[in-house]
Amino acid sequence: FQKLKSGLSKSSTKIVSSISSVITKRKLDDEALEELEEALIAADLGPVTAAKLTASLAKSRFDKEVTDEEVRGALAEDIAIILDPVAKPLEIDRSKGPHVVLVVGVNGSGKTTTIGKMAQHYSAQGLKVMLAAGDTFRAAAVEQLKIWGDRTGCKVVARETGADAAGLAYDAIESARAEGADLLLIDTAGRLHNKKDLMAELEKVVRVIAKLDASAPHNTLLVLDATVGQNAHSQVETFQSIVNVSGLVVTKLDGTAKGGVLVALAEKFGLPVHAIGVGETADDLKPFEADAYAKSLMG
Ligand code: GDP
């Protein structure tokens, strides 16, 4: 919880100061509510969520004297209610042999790092984890995944740069089966500037995986970089149009004041948020907990 709190400190500092600039001790009239709504929009919670939160405050406290602490406390409670339904850890089914997780997202969002962190987490739980370097386009991405493989003691299936990503996914599943792996994490390319190519590539990867195991991929995780703020919405829409996104991991919450975007995403898409990234090391992937997140965000 402390790590989460310090990770989210940039977001909470911004929100706390913008709320207290609207309210220190004040009557919660229409004007105060309007200013509060604007402050929440500025904190990346999005217009729909901001309106919903202020309406809820108005319902219980309209025209009453309130303090900023009281307002933040009430907001944290309402935000936790929004986040609660999406706060779901990833469930790995060991009987799947292997449970296949496809990891998608734009370049730089933190896919490879998240895979490395997940490899560490699930290996520590006693699962046999394998990694597939499916971003075959970038040599650096393959190298980076191999480093995570060494670090976590997990085997990495890779091919030469430019190799067919679907072919690699095929090899990886065969290899994971042969080795009796419980979990296979497949990295993918994220060249969003060429959406047609990316779409063709990801669709082929999914098709080939399903050929080997009709129930796979068992999860398709979209990794989102929180620092992009409202842009995250269009990334969700884009990837939903290409693959069957089953859940989110939101990264880089340590380096941004845009932590409110997660609330807006939860409200809009209702996709499970499996974990959050609050740093670059193996231990910096944290479970996403509604109450802790809401409280950390509201200082
Ligand atoms: P990919 O292109 O989607 O595979 O992204 P990478 O995994 O290579 O990550 C891009 C950069 O973001 C790297 O420098 C990572 O160390 C960094 N990164 C990833 N996740 C986090 C996070 O949660 N917090 C911080 N501060 N940096 C992160």
What would your notes on this structure say?
This is Signal recognition particle receptor FtsY. With 299 residues, the chain is of the alpha/beta class. The protein is built from 12 helices and 10 strands. Strands 5-4-6-3-7-8-9-10 form an 8-stranded mixed β-sheet, sandwiched between helices. A two-stranded antiparallel sheet has the order 1-2. The protein is elongated. The two termini are 12 Å apart.
Mean pLDDT: 94
Q: Helix and strand string, N-terminal first? A: HHEHHEHEHEHEHEHEHEHEEH
**Broad structural category:** alpha/beta
Count of separate DSSP helical elements:
12
Strand elements, count: 10
Walk across the major sheet and give the strand order: 5-4-6-3-7-8-9-10
Bound molecules: guanosine-5'-diphosphate
Poorly predicted segments = none
Percent of sequence in beta strands: 5-15%
Q: What overall geometry do the principal axes of the alpha carbons give?
A: elongated
How far do the termini sit from each other?
12 Å
Helix amount, in percent? 40-55%
**Rg calc:** 21 Å
Largest sheet geometry: 8 strands, mixed
Features:
299 residues; alpha/beta; 12 helices; elongated; binds guanosine-5'-diphosphate
How would you briefly describe this protein structure?
InterPro entries: AAA+_ATPase, P-loop_NTPase, Signal_recog_particl_SRP54_hlx, SR_rcpt_FtsY, SRP/SRP_N, SRP54_GTPase_dom, SRP54_N_sf. By secondary structure, the protein is α/β, with parallel strands linked by helices.
